[in-house]
Amino acid sequence: MMDASRVRNFNQIGQAAFGTTGRVIIYILYFVNVMGIVGDYIILAGQSFHQIANGRGLSESGWKLVCAAVMWLGCISLKQMSEAAILSFVGIVTSMGAILIGVVQAFMHPYRDNGMTPVAYHPAVHETARGSGVALALATISFAFCAVSVMPSVESSMRRPDKWNSVLGLSMAIIGTTYIFVATVGYWAFGDQALAPFLDNLPANGATKAAKILISLHVIFASPVIATSFALELEVALNITRERLSRVREFAARLVLRTLFFVAMAGIALGIPFFGDVMALVGALSMSLLLCVVPVACYIKLRGWRNIGWPLLLVCALVVCLGVYICIMGSKGAIEDMRKDIRARNAV
Question: Residue 121 domain-assigned?
Answer without folding.
Answer: yes
